[in-house]
Write a structure and sequence with these properties.
It is built from 22 helices and no strands. By secondary structure, the protein is mostly helical. α13 packs antiparallel against α14. The protein is globular, with a radius of gyration of 24 Å.
Length: 559
């Protein structure tokens, strides 16, 4: 039977934000930019909130702040792994599969998939929360302080899988606003609870610091409740439209419930491993760093804890703000690549991969180098003036480029259903990490884990890029010229920001948080303006972001 014009319209338009009524035609690059803007805004603001709280938090903990940071990191690394296992890659898998069925105009199937996923994520959340709670003594690595931290974190594992699944459902419709806003509200509620309890326990009552850290980690549960309420509001808002799409879909696919579960699990399993990749490397650090340091260095436990806090908590908190740029674009790319894969359009996949890599480089490289340039004042603002802490943060900033790249291209592999291959490549990177961990920590101390992580993820990223180029072709001719411009302008920005910092500290007190804030803002403004002016003047920004930047050019009177 021939397809009617109306049916054709529904099918071809299925991929473009069907929850919103709009006549606007949009390319995949436009959708990627819009989605990335929402996810980047949500992620950046959330990460900033998650970093800014450290300033008063460190002050209230006083000379116990390094111990508190190290304990926080130990608990959170284990929790992150369990959380990813509880989520089980289901959100990204559901986003991918919902986009797949939406492209086929089978909205009803995608919605059934979501509802079945709710049952699955709820079950895995309960199971993982119980294992984390009762297995806390086993996972503590003989540190009794870690046990109450894991107990407090197990509550969040109950709620977050359902919240993440619902975000994935909206992402399958290429609606990134619900995810971004719920992410921000989640972090806002979490940070508010952390600061209130830390102030009352440490600032007012001068209580037990382990209890204060325990309440700070319990805040993850409070934040999850806040984020879930936002998503519930969005679901109610779009419920009528979802019903309409389901009623008007083709309904030619009669997929049994058992097969839907199989699809979710088959798609989700590789996401568990890839989604937990950075956390797995952090756990390798947590369970090897102390033993290697004890074997080669005659340092006190307090000093080793301090060194661990430098790279596992202090610098990690700040560089993850930059890495979130990469993860935001990665999340946006998955459903769009799934659509292109469903249509068998290799050329579109090629274009989307190229666009994703260019957008990543345009934002990530200057941001990472900029953070490296202001490492000294930034470390002083959030923690205190410390030469070793500054060096660790600076080196971590360089490594963050590799972490961000891995985040983007591993998501691309998942979007085009190359999950198993991506896991295989990650396994190679993990072996490299293990092999290098011992000698690098032995020779470089706190820098060792960072370098082994950087090399491990660099090898994984190279393997993935090589495969993508062989299968779909990456437009290196299209990438080379703008990438060269991005790199040159980023290095100029880095040099300018570094000069501002060093010149400022010839006259200002390096121990002062107020002076550090002034230097950091000044260097960021000057360096940021240099990058903005250079990319606008050469029209590089237009190539990346389209006509959106014309208004900025007019405001700055750049011709």
């Amino acid at each position: 039977m021939a397809e009617t014009p109306q049916e054709h319209k529904q099918t071809s338009g299925a991929g473009f934000q069907p929850l919103r009524t709009t006549n606007k035609e949009s390319t995949s690059k436009d959708k990627m930019i819009e989605g990335s803007a929402w996810m980047t805004a949500g992620s950046i603001f959330s990460r900033l909130l998650g970093a800014i709280y450290i300033i008063p938090w460190v002050i209230w903990f006083g000379n116990l702040s390094d111990d508190a940071n190290a304990l926080f990191a130990k608990g959170y690394n284990i929790y992150s792994f369990f959380l990813i296992a509880a989520i089980a890659g289901i959100p990204s898998a559901v986003a991918k599969q919902v986009a797949h069925y939406n492209t086929m105009n089978e909205f009803a199937v995608g919605q059934r998939l979501y509802k079945r996923g709710l049952l699955l994520s709820g079950a895995t959340g309960i199971l993982c929360a119980l294992v984390l709670y009762f297995g806390a003594p086993i996972f503590s690595n003989n540190d009794p302080h870690v046990i109450p931290i894991l107990h407090s974190l197990s509550w969040a594992v109950l709620v977050i899988p359902t919240m993440s699944l619902t975000r994935g459902f909206f992402q399958g419709y290429q609606e990134m606003a619900p995810s971004a806003i719920s992410q921000f509200v989640e972090q806002l509620a979490r940070v508010a609870y952390m600061l209130i309890t830390a102030y009352l326990i440490m600032g007012v009552h001068h209580g037990n610091w382990v209890t204060a850290v325990s309440q700070s980690t319990f805040a993850a549960f409070i934040g999850a409740i806040g984020g879930m309420l936002v998503l519930f509001f969005y679901y109610l808002r779009h419920r009528a439209r979802l019903r309409e799409l389901a009623a008007n879909s083709k309904q030619e696919l009669a997929i049994p419930t058992k097969q839907l579960y199989k699809e979710i699990i088959a798609q989700a399993t590789p996401f568990i491993i890839i989604g937990s990749a950075i956390t797995i490397f952090q756990l390798i650090d947590q369970y090897t760093f102390f033993n290697i340091m004890a074997h080669f260095f005659n340092y006190s436990t307090a000093l080793v804890n301090k060194l661990y806090s430098y790279f596992a908590f202090n610098s990690n908190k700040l560089i993850m703000i930059v890495v979130s740029l990469g993860s935001s674009m990665a999340i946006t790319a998955v459903p769009m690549l799934s659509e292109a894969k469903t249509r068998g359009n290799k050329r579109e996949i090629n274009n989307q991969v190229t666009d994703a890599l260019l957008l990543f480089a345009f934002f990530m490289i200057p941001a990472a180098l900029g953070m490296a340039a202001v490492a000294q004042p930034l470390n002083t603002i959030f923690y205190y003036y410390d030469v070793v802490g500054t060096l660790v943060l600076e080196f971590s900033s360089y490594v963050s480029i590799i972490l961000g790249l891995f985040t983007v291209i591993s998501a691309i592999m998942q979007g085009i259903s190359e999950n198993v291959r991506a896991v295989g490549y990650f396994a190679i990177g993990t072996v490299v990490k293990f092999v290098l961990q011992f000698p690098l920590v032995a020779y470089l101390g706190a820098m060792g884990p960072l370098l082994s992580t950087g090399i491990g993820f660099a090898i994984v990223s190279w393997l993935i890029l090589r495969h993508l180029n062989r299968e779909y072709g990456i437009s290196f001719r299209r990438i080379s010229k703008p990438f060269a411009g991005i790199l040159i302008f980023s290095l100029i920005t880095f040099a300018v920001a570094t000069a501002v910092v060093r010149l400022s500290y010839l006259f200002l007190n390096p121990y002062s948080k107020t002076m550090a804030f002034f230097v950091c803002v000044l260097a960021a403004l000057v360096g940021g303006f240099v990058y903005l002016y250079a990319t606008l003047k050469t029209r590089l920004a237009d190539m990346m972001l389209g006509d959106r930047v014309e208004r900025i050019r007019r405001l700055l009177r750049i011709h």
